[in-house]
Amino acid sequence: YQRRVHGGPLRINGLYDAYPFVDNICTFTIRGIDLYDMVVYGLSMGAPSEDLITSTGPFPQISGIRLTYDPTLNLTRLVNITIYNRTLKEWQPLRRAQIYTVSTTSYVCTGGDKYPVNGIIESTITTMEIHSVVMDYIKQQPSQSITPMVDKRMTIVKGLPPLVMKHISQVDCLVNTSYDSSALDCIPCPVGQYQPLLGQATCINIPNTSHVVVSSSSDFNLKNVLIPIASGLLLIALLIVLIVIYRRKSRAKRALAEAPQGTVAIVFTDIQGSTSLWDNFPYDMGAALELHNDCIRRVLARHKGYEVKTIGDSFMMAFGDVVSAVKCCCDIQTSLMDLNWPDTICVHESGMKHYNSEGLLKWNGLRVRMGIHAGEPEPRVDHNTWRVDYFGPVVNCAARVEGQACGGQICTTAMVIELLKHRNAYDDYSITYMGPKTLKGIVDKVELYSILPHSLKEREFPPPKQTNPCSKCQDEMICTRCDGVVAVPRIIQLPNLNLNSRSMNPRYSASVTTDSEITVGKSFVDNNNQRNQVVEPPPVIHILPCNTHLGYN
Question: CA-to-CA distance for 449 and 46, rounded, in angstroms?
Fold first, then answer.
């Protein structure tokens, strides 16, 4: 919390910015190794980030500690730690076995935020409240200016290795060393003693060797000893290298054996309006994303598909045949309808519930768009994740096809449709011809089709994105680099909308023009839950200069 305290005079009403909880002062004793665990835990609570605040959780509010850390690391972010010795008035490295006396908040002392407090030797929680102590100190010195002492407690660095301080036991001790419980470390055996075995409890006396005859230096040749040792070490190193190479090749072969090869159907997915959902409902969107990911992986496993990778909220998947790919995508669309989405997601335009003419759900929850293309991509093993990734024109085309789809829609190419016909599976789905489209980075026009399960055939979608006539900004809805672009906005159907209602949620708004055009900032719901007539404005075509922004999703 010291990050929130700015330099200069400290105001009393600013104390709660530094100490937002009414905590008491707690004093405890702890060994250095256990204090290291507490600090590492606190620094590693947040997700990796370039930002100082979001990359760390709360940690012991102790002015006598200086930390150097890398917030972009995943696990141990601590790079260096020093403790202020108040007796010698100097900063010293943290020592593993030294016992420190620490004063901090009772929240940390009692294990708040799941702090590892098992290493605390003895603790005392006083009756003094932190903010009261600070206020009393300020009142006693009315003529002085109180300035926080930040004294460079936290320093961010990048590229340095983390500080690793391990708990050591007897089993970690090497030959001729023994574990010392007071030092919490392995120490060399004293003169006249030795340790013949790994992990033996104590050093033992060297036996009497007076009867052993030692040859003279003239009879001893050092080369006769060093050459065999060096040769043996070289052979061991060569053997280790061969083992590593063999294991990497074997692992790559296993990865390739698990992934589809030859003619492969590539599928890309993405969530429509995810940026707006994260901005408006960050907590509920996190829960919704977990539901989305679990659903896709569950259906993917049922259809024996291969998860190539995820990028944000997007999936890249591969299938050994087109029929399985199409079945999986349709199954995902219907399975997403059955999930129990958070209520806030269902009032957003990208998650509203809609019903068909028979009163059955045709929209519910997150809208996931999908693109499918088939061909022979080039498989490669990623030696970091040991997963197979795919490259080539087939993958590029599948990604562009997904970009042409709307949320809840599955777009495919003519190649996919022909393979469905060849497998006599064409009539199993509701297929709509979308026409030839020019896709970014692809020379020839691509014939696109919309495909859905018959149960969702009443879903309606706006026209595909218009091809931009400007060569500098192809495939963009709103061009920002050239003049004269035609933009086709999405007209959003809002059910149960009472435009005259005064009880609408103030977080959402809409306005209606004299031309019956409806301009929507966000979706909204009449809080009276009245059943009103659905507003269905006619499509509107806007011809705009490049610097105009419509605000459409």
Answer: 44
- CA distance between the termini of the chain: 38
Residue 461 in contact with residue 409, Cβ under 8 Å? Answer: yes
Query: Which among 67, 70, 74 has a CA at the least distance from the CA of 48?
Result: 74
Task: Report which of 419, 371, 493, 58 is spatially closest to residue 263, judged by C-alpha positions.
Answer: 419
Most confident listed range (46-60, 109-123, 215-229, 256-270)? 256-270
pTM for this entry: 0.45
Element (H, E) at 228: helix 223-258
Task: Give the confidence band of 11 by pLDDT, cuts at 50, 70, 90.
Answer: low
SS (H, E, C) 315-337: EEEEECCHHHHHHHHHHHHHHHH
Distance of alpha carbon 276 from alpha carbon 349, whole angstroms = 10
Tokens representing 170 are 């007897």
Give the single-character DSSP code of 48: S
HSE-up of residue 158 (Cα within 13 Å, Cβ side): 7
Question: Which among 54, 56, 35, 58 is positioned nearest to 163, based on CA atoms?
Answer: 35
Identify which has the larger pLDDT, 196 or 258: 258
